[in-house]
């Protein structure tokens, strides 16, 4: 019902545009948005686009009524925004909204980098996302409705911290989706800090709980890619990750990611026809739309066979062994 009502609202906006009576996007949100939150609505840096807030609030309020969530805060993401702002800082495209606390935060977040295969190039550049899909193995972002689920913490390797080699763990927050995002778990889609350990070598440490059968553990460099691309997951800076994980641990909430497939197709069609997005009641970040030309959604039933064929074509590689640390 939620998605149906949102589509009907979008259709009404387009009809309004054709008849010359299109309301402003801000006014389409309804009178129930409190004044303190209205000041954060817009398309400028640090603001949330009206259509995204509308859908994020509708999803959150629906799950509240259903008893699925009781968290005082909800989350949203705008994957159409650039990775960096005009000042060169990580672009703020992820939103933490706590209406009862009158709190709004805009922070950086990554998006899916995609792949470049012989039969299909669905890769994304570092600054703006052009390609989107819910195909497993696509490494792409999929817009739509999610609810945060449990967390899983895993060992990633040893890194040097405070002059000593220490084990590094990363916590992964799972997302449960619905509709086009219902395969989020199959795709291992969730949220985590934008850091990974780039393995370099292995050293003898038989006392470690993470040692292999020969007593070696992997060692490497901790790489921070805050605001960059990911394998389709939502990534945050380490400090923001701590805040979000603390917010939702044992207390799930909703996450709405924009754009959905219908938005992508509608924007692509409008661009093809040379029409105005605003007059059609559509939204895409202007800077990124100029950079990518037009977005593209790759349906799962189209892209999945290509990915599966590519995987089957890969030659079997012997398991590589890390060199011994010097």
Automatic annotation (TrEMBL):
<keyword id="KW-0732">Signal</keyword>
<protein>
    <submittedName>
        <fullName>L,D-transpeptidase catalytic domain</fullName>
    </submittedName>
</protein>
<feature type="signal peptide">
    <location>
        <begin position="1"/>
        <end position="26"/>
    </location>
</feature>
């Amino acid at each position: 019902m939620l998605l149906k009502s949102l589509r009907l609202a979008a259709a009404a906006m387009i009809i309004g545009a054709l008849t010359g009576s299109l309301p402003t996007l801000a006014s389409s949100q309804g009178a129930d948005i409190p004044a303190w939150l209205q000041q954060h609505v817009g398309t400028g840096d640090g603001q949330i686009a009206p259509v995204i807030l509308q859908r994020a609030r509708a999803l959150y309020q629906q799950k509240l009524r259903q008893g699925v969530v009781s968290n005082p805060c909800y989350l949203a993401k705008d994957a159409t925004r650039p990775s960096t702002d005009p000042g060169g800082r990580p672009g703020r495209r992820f939103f933490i909204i706590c209406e009862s606390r009158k709190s709004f935060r805009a922070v950086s977040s990554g998006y899916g980098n995609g792949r470049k295969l012989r039969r299909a190039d669905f890769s994304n550049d570092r600054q703006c996302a052009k390609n989107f899909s819910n195909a497993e193995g696509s490494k792409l972002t999929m817009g739509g409705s999610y609810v945060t689920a449990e967390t899983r913490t895993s060992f990633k390797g040893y890194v040097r911290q405070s002059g000593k080699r220490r084990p590094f763990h990363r916590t992964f927050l799972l997302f449960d989706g619905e509709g086009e995002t219902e395969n989020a778990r199959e795709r291992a889609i969730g949220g985590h800090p934008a850091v990974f350990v780039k393995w370099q070598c292995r050293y003898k440490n038989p006392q470690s709980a993470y040692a292999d059968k020969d007593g070696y553990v992997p060692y490497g460099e901790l790489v921070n890619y805050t605001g960059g691309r990911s394998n389709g997951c939502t990534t945050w800076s380490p400090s923001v990750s701590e805040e979000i994980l603390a917010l939702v641990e044992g207390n799930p909430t909703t996450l709405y990611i924009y754009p959905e497939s219908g938005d992508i197709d509608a924007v692509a069609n409008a661009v093809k026809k040379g029409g105005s997005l605003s007059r059609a009641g559509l939204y895409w970040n202007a800077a990124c739309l100029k950079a990518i030309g037009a977005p593209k959604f790759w349906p799962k039933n189209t892209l999945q066979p290509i990915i599966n064929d590519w995987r089957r074509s890969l030659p079997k590689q012997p398991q590589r062994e890390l060199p011994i640390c010097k």
